[in-house]
From TrEMBL:
Residue segments, region Disordered: 152-174
Record-linked InterPro entries: DNA_ligase_ATP-dep_C, LigD_pol_dom, NA-bd_OB-fold, NHEJ_ligase_prk, NHEJ_LigD
Domain DNA ligase ATP-dependent C-terminal per the UniProt entry, residue ranges: 41-132
Keywords associated with the record: Ligase
PANTHER family to which the protein is assigned, alphabetical: BIFUNCTIONAL NON-HOMOLOGOUS END JOINING PROTEIN LIGD (PTHR42705)
Species of origin: Proteiniphilum acetatigenes
Protein name as catalogued: DNA ligase (ATP)
A biological-process GO annotation: DNA recombination
Molecular functions (GO terms): DNA ligase (ATP) activity
Cited Pfam families: DNA_ligase_A_C, LigD_Prim-Pol
Known EC number: 6.5.1.1
Lineage: Bacteria, Pseudomonadati, Bacteroidota, Bacteroidia, Bacteroidales
Residue intervals of the DNA ligase D polymerase domain: 194-448
Amino acid sequence: MAKKKTSIYRDGDRTSEWIKIKDHQTAEAIIAGYTEPRGSRKYFGSLILAVYENGKLRYAGHVGTGFRENTLKEIHTLLQPLVTGKMPFSKKPATNMPPTWVKPVTVCTVKYAEITDEGLFRHPVFIGLREDVTAEELRKYSSGAASGIIAPNRNVPSEEKGVRKKPAKKINGVRSGPKFTNTDKLYWKKEKITKGELIDYYLSVSDYLLPYLKHRAQSLHRFPNGIDEPGFYHKDAGDNAPAWVDTVAIYSESTGKEVEYIVCNNKETLAYLINLGCIELNPWNNRTEAPDNPDYLIIDLDPSEKNNFKQVIEAAKVTKEVLDSLEIPTYCKTSGSTGIHIFVPMGAQYTYEQVRDLALILMQLVQKLLPKTTTLERSLKKRGPKIYLDYLQNRQGQTVASVYSVRPKPGAPVSMPLAWEELVSDLSIHDFTIHNALSRLQERGDLFLPVLQKGINMRKVLDNLTKIQ
């Protein structure tokens, strides 16, 4: 209780001179399972918590508050590959709903009032996941923590405050910032490519990549268990992002709330994102200082399963011919998956609506020239065996994989810029991978850089359109 020194207590009278202050502490705990949701709640009711005590795992309570709806979904998705029929405790704890057990490898942070006599968290609140701390580290250090719970804010000797972390592993010269975890985990099991190799790739090309990420919100697509397990989308940085990571608050009309997006402005933040399991990077089309004005126009040539890559190349070449006739500079890159991305520099001079409308006009011209193999129909069921000329990528919040981004596909392909003369019939998506992207960059340089430079004159383009129609 805090009070003004000169004030006196008045029974039943609420006053700003007497303020109740709750003393909360935080600690790391291991997720051992979750309970079924009740009522309108989705995904799970609460997380079952565990801590190590003298090297042995024990029950530490459960936490059911502190979650947003998107967090519930993300955590539930993350835990699905870890579901097991084996309970991690020697004695089954009492839960208010039927439990689902998971392998005890995921670490989270909780806020709590105190530790009960039974060693449980009292009034715990979920704060976030700890990607930089492993359950094995907690096991090793458990013998030095009172009650088996490591609480940074407790009055314990300084060497026991918080989780004692290993020195940051040096990968490509990065020492500060994130602590790399589970670097030996296989993200591509067939190819035997590890998480550490993915981090190493991104840091090796960071000088080329960062200009396309700086000052842009990032829509995170995380694959913490590699490409063979389901990934999940993560937009809201919330309280989980470190203090040194830049963020931007953007209002979401769908939720009626502001979403805190991560902005990747430096090598340390890039490393942090990859350590989270972001195999691919998806920046917004606009910079944060110009929220309504994209820097480029994007055409995503998106084939159906029945189209071959030669047809995609043909569509790209016809698109180039149409844009050349209008004196529009164009730059292409492989998507890293099955398609090709074509970019036009806009220089943040026009609104999303203006850019999208121009993209539609251009794709209508292309579709007329290739009616048998292309379509403007977005619905997968209705478009049939045709390449979708996706002009709707030019909307605020829509993203495509960044240039030089790895894709969560077999072979670890990379989205690579091409000179137009390289767009030949025997081109393959797998020509550019995590293994050869850096050497190509060192040899050819950044072919995509003009996309970030001077934009087109839309008035001139519209004048040219009237001449050819």
